[in-house]
Design goal:
Chain A: It is found in: Cell membrane. The complex is a heterodimer of chains A (about 280) and B (about 250). Chain A is an alpha/beta fold and about 280 residues long. Chain A has ten helices and twelve strands. Classes of the chains: A alpha/beta (about 280), B mainly alpha (about 250).
Chain lengths: ~280, ~250
């Protein structure tokens, strides 16, 4: 397994304030890595250091085999970046914008192919300022892909999307993954990380409070919820041994010739684990 | 070099596509030349010993350098910075040097085209002969473009928001352009205004332009004026080196 990104004891201070307080993680080539956390947790700082845009205070990092702080133009041609806010020329069309940025790379993807990937076919020749927020964001993604990068950084790529647009964006990201692109994704949407990421790290106050696959993260919480109705009454049980407990419940019900109305068995979602980990429902940090 | 040409073409596309900016920076000096030329083009300006149209032609080139290279460039850079475009450009293989060279090269092309148009209008509509010192004129245009662009780079660092950029930069350059002897000769100014005008780079630049274009002197005979323009250019460059940023202010 090739390592695309490795981060060792990364720290970043702005004056007195330490935004990132010594974090470690690795991203295997071809994987989607989700960096989760509330606003102000240090996600964007971390990503911008990996993009070579900000200098770190200390620590060792390697992205595609190089230190981003000292990497040159050849390295830049191998990465693609979607910034946290849309950054586009309002008076160009998506096709023109893609042509402009294609010119910066030695071996760009064909413009028409990128338009196809991000689903902007109908709007390819409309001025950017007439596009919706979601369409602009897809163009941002297109501009990150035009150089045919090995690795892309997506900083909150679907913030402000309606559910349909979010699903479309997820599909695009899955397509990229299937093409072998390594992806670092920051998000504060848990379902997004659950849907897309192979590995997740939860950042809080500049430290990683939990890391692993989405399944490992949710699997770490030991209790399963069983919910059903009996004699018109809603019952909720928590158990560490759901197989046995379910068997007991259903056998008893069958013996009595009853039906367990609305029976539901669920594991805690990543969202619940996350809220527990970040210790806040407001997301304030 | 290929990247430079690519970016230069991009900059030209961006400039002409932005109609409002193209109007204010490129066409306004031309329109002012037509209007003021019609008003006092035939009148002699006794203190300058030339006809109004001759005076105005050089003045509008001075006004043009301020509107394209200083104000136009400054506003463009602030807007691009705040839109995150400068930041995005930094994530591509395009080097900052190539990018900025293309931005400056493009604005120089715009200014050159504008000066040519003003000289042509002067010849056709107001009977101002073409300048005799063609080489000196070109040098004057180049020095003006470089120095005022440096000031444009410098001022972009002082302006914080994209919304306020036009207002803030226009508030600096419009009064400067008007008192710097572009429309009216500073020779009749009250003392306090004369003192201000004498400190401004555009006053000196307009004088050099006028001397070269109207009186046919060689560009270096006005070296004292050029030094003032150059000093302002250097001040702009120093401000740019200290204040120029690629990332948006609020980030």
């Amino acid at each position: 397994m090739t390592i695309a990104v490795s981060v060792r004891d990364l720290r970043k201070s702005y004056g007195e304030f330490e935004a990132v307080k010594g974090i470690d993680f690795e991203i295997a080539a071809g994987q989607v890595f989700g960096l989760l956390g509330p606003n102000g947790a240090g996600k964007t700082t971390t990503v911008e250091i990996l993009e070579g845009y900000r200098n770190r205070s200390s620590g060792d990092i390697s992205v595609l085999g190089e230190d981003p702080q000292h990497a040159g133009q050849a390295w830049r041609s191998r990465i693609g970046v979607v910034l946290q806010s849309s950054s586009l020329y309002p008076n160009l069309t998506p096709r023109e914008s893609l042509r402009v940025f294609a010119g910066y790379y030695a071996t760009p993807r064909p413009v028409d192919e990128v338009i196809e990937i991000v689903g902007l076919g109908e709007k390819a020749d409309a001025r950017v300022r007439t596009l919706s927020g979601g369409q602009k964001r897809r163009l941002d993604l297109g501009l990150a892909l035009i150089g045919n990068p090995d690795m892309i950084f997506l900083d909150e790529p679907t913030t402000g999307f309606d559910p349909g647009a979010r699903r479309a964006a997820w599909e695009t990201i899955r397509n990229l993954r299937s093409l072998g692109t390594t992806i670092l994704l920051t998000t504060h949407y848990l379902d997004e990380a659950e849907q897309l990421a192979d590995q997740v790290a939860v950042l809080r106050g500049g430290v990683i409070v939990r890391a692993g696959s989405p399944a490992e993260l949710t699997g770490g919480a030991s209790e399963t919820e069983i919910r059903y109705r009996q004699a018109g009454e809603e019952i909720l049980e928590r158990t560490t041994d759901p197989t046995r407990r379910l068997h007991e419940l259903t056998s008893a019900a069958l013996e009595r010739g009853e039906v367990l109305d609305g029976i539901e068995v669920r594991r805690p979602t990543l969202e619940e684990v996350y809220l527990e980990l970040t210790g806040s429902e407001t997301g304030a940090e | 070099m290929k990247l430079f040409v690519h970016q230069l073409r991009t900059e030209q596309l961006l400039f002409w596509r932005n109609r409002e900016a193209a109007f204010f920076t490129f066409f306004l000096p031309v329109i002012f030349f037509l209007i003021f030329g019609a008003i006092y083009g035939d009148t002699d300006i006794s203190s300058e010993h030339i006809k109004g149209s001759y005076f105005l032609e050089a003045g509008m080139i001075g006004y043009g350098v301020a509107s394209t290279c200083f104000a136009g460039l400054g506003i463009t850079l602030v807007v691009r910075r705040e839109l995150g475009i400068l930041k995005r450009v930094r994530t591509t293989p395009l080097t900052p040097l190539t990018y900025l060279s293309a931005v400056l090269g493009s604005i120089f092309i715009v200014f050159l085209f504008e000066a040519a148009l003003i000289i042509l209008i002067g010849r056709v509509l107001f009977g101002v002969p073409f300048p005799t010192q063609a080489f000196s004129v070109l040098v004057v245009l180049l020095i003006g473009a470089v120095c005022f662009a440096a000031m444009g780079l410098g001022i972009s660092g002082f302006v914080r928001s994209a919304e306020g950029s036009s207002a803030a930069i226009n508030a600096v350059y419009l009064p400067m352009a008007i008192i710097s002897g572009t429309f009216f000769t500073p020779k009749g100014y009250p003392t306090f205004l004369k003192v201000i005008a004498d400190a401004l780079p555009l006053t000196h630049y307009t004088k050099v332009t006028r001397d070269v274009m109207v009186h046919g002197v060689h560009v270096w005979s006005d070296w004292k004026q050029l030094l003032v323009v150059l000093a302002w250019g250097i001040a702009g460059m120093l401000a740019a080196l200290k204040l120029f940023r690629w990332q948006p202010r609020e980030a």
